[in-house]
Write a structure and sequence with these properties.
This protein has four helices and 17 strands. By secondary structure, it is of the alpha+beta class. The model has no long low-confidence stretch (mean pLDDT about 95). The structure holds 2-oxoglutaric acid.
């Protein structure tokens, strides 16, 4: 079976700003991802589990370089890249990833947001592949996306909610979107949802007895510049990452801007945990 998105799914992507493909990670790849997550959690026990930022890059002083290489390999799954290519074109730059693991009963909510609010990329462009490691359900806080919110490529007004214990420090202001457009997207382990940088999304707290973990991979097109001078927030209260030093990886095609820097950050990423 062809793993690529059908014309119908591509139309859904254009209309909604997100799409769930038929393709799922094969069992061995899913097991590799789940195993890497277990090791990551054991290696960095003080990091908030909703904020395990870019595990595909070695953390400075981090004890487990091979673990980061394994995550990097998981960002290069050819079928996932083929789907990303359908959505952002043949020039694909990996610039970020993040584990969002919400522990049973204590997993914090992800406030409504558009990723573009936080990221130093111009023109603003990225597709996220959010891959479920655990089964995600309405009960354990599956992703919720606002259909059509990417239309018009407009960043909505975000307000600070710093200090309120959510997984991010800003939230879309009331009235910016219609609650009727919210779609809950439950996923089986290995299933994934792709969404656009402008698509509003969030998740409730995990009050269930089941962990809800996913791996979000960020791919931008080679036509976009990762601007290391631009000052934007990390998006989280308790994890500070310096986005200006983030390593970029050209996975397919070319850097059409000729200005993206693929050397900075490859010796490690500084992560400070409060
Ligand atoms: O997994 C979550 O709760 C949030 C994911 C998210 O905000 C993202 O991948 O941009």
């Amino acid at each position: 079976m062809d793993h690529r998105l059908s014309a119908e799914r591509l139309a859904a992507w254009t209309r909604d700003g997100f799409v769930v493909p038929d393709y799922q990670l094969p069992p061995a790849t899913l097991a590799a991802l789940a195993g890497a997550l277990e090791e990551l959690l054991a290696t960095y026990p003080r990091m908030p589990t909703e904020g395990l930022v870019s595990p595909h890059i070695r953390y400075l002083g981090g004890p487990a370089p091979d673990l980061h290489d394994r995550f990097l390999e998981l960002c290069r799954v050819p079928e996932v890249l083929d789907i990303a290519e359908q959505l952002i074109g043949p020039d694909i730059i990996l610039w970020g990833s993040r584990i969002f693991s919400k522990s049973a009963r204590t997993g914090r909510a992800t406030p409504w947001h558009q990723d573009g609010e936080y990221w130093p990329i111009r023109p603003l462009a990225t597709v996220t592949a959010w891959i479920a490691i655990d089964a995600t359900t309405p009960a354990n806080g599956c992703l919720r996306l606002v259909a059509g919110s990417h239309q018009g490529k407009r960043l909505m007004r975000h307000e600070s909610i710093a200090g309120r214990g959510a997984a991010l420090d800003k939230e879309i202001a009331p009235g910016e979107f219609d609650a009727g457009d919210v779609v809950e997207v439950p996923l089986a382990p290995g299933q994934m949802v792709f969404f656009d940088v402008y698509t509003a999304h969030g998740a409730t707290a995990n009050t269930s007895g089941e962990r809800r973990a996913g791996f979000a991979i960020r791919y931008m097109p080679g036509s976009a510049l990762y601007d290391r001078e631009m000052r934007v927030g990390s998006g989280q209260d308790d994890v500070q990452t310096d986005l200006s030093e983030r390593a970029l990886f050209l996975l397919r095609g070319q850097d059409r801007t000729g200005r993206n820097d693929f050397e900075i950050g490859h010796d490690g990423m500084r992560v400070e945990v409060a």
